[in-house]
Amino acid sequence: MCFARAQSPARPAGSEQSRTEPAERAPAVTSPAKNWVLPLFTDKEGFRSMTLRGSEARTPAANRIDVVDLNITVFSGDATARVESVLLSAQASFFPKDNRATGEKSVRLVRDDIEVTGWTYDRTTQTVTILKNTRIVFRAQLNDILK
Fold first, then answer.
1. Residue 96 and residue 50 in contact, taking contact as beta carbons nearer than 8 Å
2. What is the pLDDT of residues 82-141, one digit of tens each?
3. In whole angstroms, what is the distance from residue 15 CA to residue 17 CA?
4. pTM for the whole thing?
């Protein structure tokens, strides 16, 4: 039995790419997305779990989105769609595969009573981790904070 290989009309004869050569990669997108919004939902029920927004977003890597004016609204993930917290940062990176955001600029919680510089937010564990060399300003009375 004989098999013939059809020549692609887009390629002239003799210019076939070797099977061992890597395919050409599409050029990276260098233009930012403006007024970017990324709604995220729970896997099973489809309830809103998070909404990320930014005035500008770029994807320098497959699992990384760099966002200017990041606003993360974290919801309860159930039918009530209750807002649990809001994180605001002038600039941060979001890693969709991990549901994690991090940034070196300050982060502000919606309660307006804390400001932290150097942070990571992990949706899976619902934690904000304060990194080393961090500055924290509390704008509220701290009664029995170390209980």
1. no
2. 888 888 999 999 999 998 999 888 787 776 566 677 788 888 888 888 877 777 777 777
3. 6
4. 0.64
Spell 40-77 as b/e; 16+ CB within 10 A means b: beeeeeeebbbbbbbebbbeeeeeebbbbbbbbbbbeb
* The two three-digit tokens of residue 96, written as one number: 């969709």
List the structure tokens of 31.
Answer: 């233009």
Contacts of 82 (CB under 8 A, 6+ apart): 75, 76
CATH number of 33-138: 2.60.450.10
C-alpha R_g of the chain: 23
CA separation (Å) from 84 to 37, 53, 62?
19, 16, 28
Name which of 32, 84, 31 is nearest 54 in CA terms. Answer: 32
Quickly count: other Cβ atoms within 10 Å of residue 5's Cβ: 6
CA distance 93 to 63: 10
